[in-house]
Amino acid sequence: MGVLVETIYGNSSKTMLLPGNVTAFVPTQPLAMTMLDSLTIHAKMRYVDIMYATLFVALIIILIIIILKFVKRRMQSYRGAKGGVNQVA
Asked: Structure pTM?
């Protein structure tokens, strides 16, 4: 990780003075394609992990809603049957 940070931001010991009394890091070498590919793959894997977690939460919520609707209908039918028995008696 330190190598990646140093590659992107440079080494703080390598600085130069710009006009206006501004200190800047000396330009560093571009990242190698293998490093860029591995970062891209890592980012895609992280995105997929987040999507699966979001999908899982959404499915749990949908399942809870379906169960609650089922319980509500069962209670309504039970009350309806109970009310029908009371009307006959």
From this structure: 0.45
